[in-house]
Fold each of these.
Amino acid sequence: KQEVTQIPAALSVPEGENLVLNCSFTDSAIYNLQWFRQDPGKGLTSLLLIQSSQREQTSGRLNASLDKSSGRSTLYIAASQPGDSATYLCAVRKGGTDSWGKLQFGSGTQVVVTP
Amino acid sequence: NAGVTQTPKFRVLKTGQSMTLLCAQDMNHEYMYWYRQDPGMGLRLIHYSVGEGTTAKGEVPDGYNVSRLKKQNFLLGLESAAPSQTSVYFCASSYLAGGRGTGELFFGEGSRLTVL
C-alpha cells in the first residue's frame, strides 16, 4: 500500500523567508502528484500537479519538484507572506486504470508565516 | 464559476437518524469522490464514481451509500448515523486521467456533520 508522509507536521517562518515543504512516498509507480492548500474550515485548493514524466512544475512563487526514484516531492514557496499561512497537503495518484479513484494523501504540513 | 458545490454545509444529527449530502459539479467531470477528514487520520476516500450510474467503494465505505444518477451530481447517504461518523465531508471531481485530463482533483468547501 502506498504510504505518503509529510515532515515536518508544522513549520513557522518569518515573512520573506523561502518555504520548503517535503512529501515522501513509498511506491514510485505513480501517475501524478498533486499539491493542495487548505485554509482553516475550508476545502482543498489545487496548487500544482506534476505528472510522473515531469521533474518540476511552476506557478508564480510556487515550484514543485518530483524525484520518482527516491520517492520525494518538494514544494518551494519563494518570499513567503502571511497570506501563505495554511496547511499544505500532497497527494499521490497510483498508476493503472483501476487505481484512478484512489489518491493517497499525506497528513499535511501546517505553515505559519509571521509578519 | 461554481466548480464543486456541497449542501448542506453544516448539520447536526442524532444517533440513528438518516441524511443525504449533495455534491454538484459544473465542470462536466467524469469522476466524483467523497472523502472524510478527521484530525490525525487525514483524508480518507469513502466512495467514488467513474461515471453516471456507476459507484465504487473506497477506503472507508461502511455505513455510507452513494448514488450517481446524473453526471453532475453525487449523493452521499447515511442510513443510520453513528457518533463515529462525526467528521468533515469533502466532495471532489476530476476529468478522467489520461484522457482529456490529468486527473487533477477539485474540491468542494466541505460539509461539517456532527452526530450526537
Amino acid sequence: KNQVEQSPQSLIILEGKNCTLQCNYTVSPFSNLRWYKQDTGRGPVSLTIMTFSENTKSNGRYTATLDADTKQSSLHITASQLSDSASYICVVKEAAGNKLTFGGGTRVLVKP
Amino acid sequence: DSGVTQTPKHLITATGQRVTLRCSPRSGDLSVYWYQQSLDQGLQFLIQYYNGEERAKGNILERFSAQQFPDLHSELNLSSLELGDSALYFCASSPPGGHYEQYFGPGTRLTVT
C-alpha cells in the first residue's frame, strides 16, 4: 500500500531558528513530490514540486530536497518567522494515473 | 488568492439532511478535486473530475456524490448527513498537462448538529 509518512508530527521553534521536516514515502512508481503549507482553516498552498531528477528546489526561505533512491524528502525552513506557523504537508503523485497520497502533515509553531 | 472559489464558506445543518457544496475552478483549469479534512486530520482525497468526466475516486462514501458541469464548475452532494461528516471540504483545480499542480480553494466548513 502506498504511504507517505511525515515526521515529526509537531514542532516548536523559536523565531529566527532553522528547522527541517522529513517525509518518507513508499509510493511507486513515483512521478513527483510536493510540499504544501496549510494555515489553520485555510486551503493548502504549494511550496515546491519536485520530479525524479530534481534533488533540491527552493522557494524563498523554504528548501526542499529529494532522494528518489531512498524515497525521502525534507523541507528546510531557514530563519523562521511567526508567519511560518502552519501545517506542512508532503504529497506524492504516482506515475500511473492521477492518484495523490498525502502525508499526515507536520504542525510547526514558531514562537517569538 | 488561488483563483478557486467555493461556496458557501460555512454551513450548519442537522443529521439526516442533504447539502450541496459548490466549487468554481481557476480559469482554464479542467480538473477539479474534492477533499475532506476532519478536525486535526490530514486531507482525504474524495474524487476528481476532468472536463466533466470522473477521473479518479478516493475514499468517497456512497452517501456522497459529485459532478462537474459543462462550464467546469463542480458540486459535491452530501446526503443522510452524520455527525462525523463535520469537516472542512476543499476543492482544488489543476491545469491540463504538466505536473498537475493543484490550487486549493478556501474550503467550506460543514457542521452537522
Amino acid sequence: QQQVKQSPQSLIVQKGGISIINCAYENTAFDYFPWYQQFPGKGPALLIAIRPDVSEKKEGRFTISFNKSAKQFSLHIMDSQPGDSATYFCAASRRGGSNYKLTFGKGTLLTVNP
Amino acid sequence: NAGVMQNPRHLVRRRGQEARLRCSPMKGHSHVYWYRQLPEEGLKFMVYLQKENIIDESGMPKERFSAEFPKEGPSILRIQQVVRGDSAAYFCASSPGKGTGSPLHFGNGTRLTVT
C-alpha cells in the first residue's frame, strides 16, 4: 500500500515557467511534509518542509501549498531554471518522535528546457 | 565540513556473496539512518541507529540484513548471501538529534549491483 502518491512521474517545463508537483497522503497521523531534491548520482537534499498548521510556506522560488482536508500538498517552483532539472520527492512522517521514518513518494523527474 | 560519507560508491557482488556498506555521519551527528531506493521507487526506511544501539529496525528485511553503529568507526549495513533483488541504491542519513528540528542529511549512496 503506497501511503504517499506523487504525480506526475515526469514533467517538462520551459525556462521561466512554473513547475507544479503534487502529492497525496492517506495516513492522517502524518504531520511533517518535506520535499527533497535529488541530482543524478547524488543523495536527496532537503529543499523545503511544512507542518499542517500552515497552508503555505515559501522559500525563494520554492513554495509548498498544503490542503489538510484534502490530504494533499504540492511543490511549486517559480521561474524554473535548467539548474532545477532533477528528481523531486515528496515525503511524510508521523508525529510521536518517529519523524525520521519518512515515507517517500516515487519521485518526479523534472526537466527544464533552456 | 564534510557531509555524510558513504563508501564504496559502487559495489558489484555475485549472488551468494556478502555486501558491506559503510557510512560515516556528519561531524557532531550521533543518529544514523539507512534507506533503500529500488529502481523507479522512492526511498524506503530500513533502520535507525545510535552509537552501539539499534533504535528502530522495523524496515529491515527479517533475514540476511543487519546493521551496526559501533562506538568507534562508521555505521555498517551488511547484506549476507545477496540476491538480485538486493540491487538498489542504499542511502545513509544522519542527524544531530531526533525530531523535526533535526532534518536528515543524506549521503550520496552506495549503488549495489548483484550479478
Amino acid sequence: GAVVSQHPSWVICKSGTSVKIECRSLDFQATTMFWYRQFPKQSLMLMATSNEGSKATYEQGVEKDKFLINHASLTLSTLTVTSAHPEDSSFYICSASSPSWEGTAGEQFFGPGTRLTVL
Amino acid sequence: GESVGLHLPTLSVQEGDNSIINCAYSNSASDYFIWYKQESGKGPQFIIDIRSNMDKRQGQRVTVLLNKTVKHLSLQIAATQPGDSAVYFCAENKAGGFKTIFGAGTRLFVKA
C-alpha cells in the first residue's frame, strides 16, 4: 500500500521558535495533502488542504500565518508552526491522496504523526 | 456545523466476542465513509470503507453497515482480539471532494 512518512516523529521546542514538519509520500505522487492536528483523547481536526503548486486552503479558525504550509512537489508538503506557544503542543498528522488512481477518489493515506511539545 | 459523531465514547468487550461501534453522520451529501483504527501515538490506519450506493461491506473480520435513511454507520468486528484495542474513528467524505471529516472516536478495550 501507499506509504506516507513524517519527520520528525517528535520535537520539543522553546516558546517563540518555529518548527517545520515534513510529510512525504514515498511511493506515489500526491497531488493533495492534508494536515490535521489532534489533541489528547480527541479526534483529528482538519487544518488545511494542500495542493501541489498552489496555496493551501485553510479550515475556518486556523491561522494561515501561524501554520505555514508549502507543497512544493508531488511528494513533499511541509507545515511550519511559527512562533510556537505551549497551546500549539499537539499531535500533527498529514495525509496524502492522489486522484489519478482508479476508483480511489477520497482515499487518503496517513502519516505516523509528529508529536510537538512547546515548552 | 456538520459533523460526524459517535454514540459511545468507550466500549469494553471480552476477547472472542463481537464488537459493534456506531457512528452517526449529519451530512446527507456525503457519499464515502471510512473507518479508521488509531493506536496510541500513531496515525490512523484504514480499516474498511463503503460508498453510499452500498449498505454493507465485509472485510476480514470486519463489516461496515450503512443506513442512509437514518444517517448511521456501524463497524462490526468479529471475534475481537487484544490487538483490536485502539480508538476507532468513522469519517465521511463529501461528494466531489477529497476532504475527510472525522467523528469523535470510540475507544475499544478488549479484555483477555
